[in-house]
Amino acid sequence: MSIIQKFYDNMASHYDKLFLDWKAATKEQAVLLQGIFQKFNFGQTTSILDCACGIGTQAIGLALLGYDVTASDISDGEIAEAKARAANANVEIRFENADFCALSDVFSEQFDIVIAMDNALPHMLSNEDLGRAVKSIVNQIKENGIFVGSIRDYDALLQDKPPYSPPYIYETEKGKRVSFQTWIWNDDRYKLTQYIIDDEETLEINKFECEYRATRREELTKLFTANGCKEVIWLFPEETGFYQPIIVARK
Question: Are 80 and 73 a contacting pair, CB within 8 Å?
């Protein structure tokens, strides 16, 4: 089992605690993504693959809007959690366990849109690994289809290499929930420890460790262009309302 699989398997039952209201977030993010899809002339009949679906945050929200959604992830734990949440939301989504570096091993078909949100691609710790992921993703996109993904603003973060992320502090009906990350840098890589402190009915503290590589926007742009995308644009939080820069690449 890779460090990525272990990280998300362990986090699966806690991931929704990163949000004040996870169900509300699924709907808000789906509307945001729908706006991007419409900007690129994709309507309701669009087929979507969420190739880093996690517990279904984007996939379930999009399915609730009526999209034809397929979802995959490398983590068995997150796929199981996502399936349960999709059933609870009464939406039909095809779920598969798949590595986004080898999507063709699982999927024979192509999709109008492939998405990978919430800083999934920077799990690739070298340009070569990231290139394999981009090639795999682009191969599953139909001609004139698009990729939509988001990453942290590493262009800014690499200037100072902060040792931690600002905490999220949520007031709930039962108490408080706090989440934050610490980062130990080694050149452009960093070891991340995610802390989730649940001080509601009883105090519970959990931590989860993983590693990322700070991926600059220019690197991703070049890789998508080199792998057959004819247009790559970046959308920023001030125009989308999303907390990370979003890349849109058209095949």
Answer: no
The pLDDT assigned to 145 comes to 98
* Cα–Cα nearest to 121, from 132, 108, 110: 132
CA distance 192 to 157: 14
Angle at 119 between CA 23 and CA 111, to 5 degrees: 80
Sheet-wide strand order for 175-186: 168-172, 175-186, 189-199, 203-213
What average pLDDT does range 62-85 have in this prediction?
Answer: 98
pLDDT tens, position by position, 20-63? 999 999 999 999 999 999 999 999 899 999 999 999 999 999 99
Contact 224/196 with Cβ under 8 angstroms? no
What pLDDT score was predicted for residue 84? 98
Measured from the Cβ of residue 201, the count of other Cβ atoms closer than 10 Å reads 8
CA distance 211 to 43: 37
Whole-model pTM over 0.85: yes
CB contact at 8 A, 144 and 78: no
**Contact indicator for 59, 81 with CB cutoff of 8 Å:** no
Q: How far is CA 84 from CA 13, 73, 78, in A?
A: 11, 15, 10
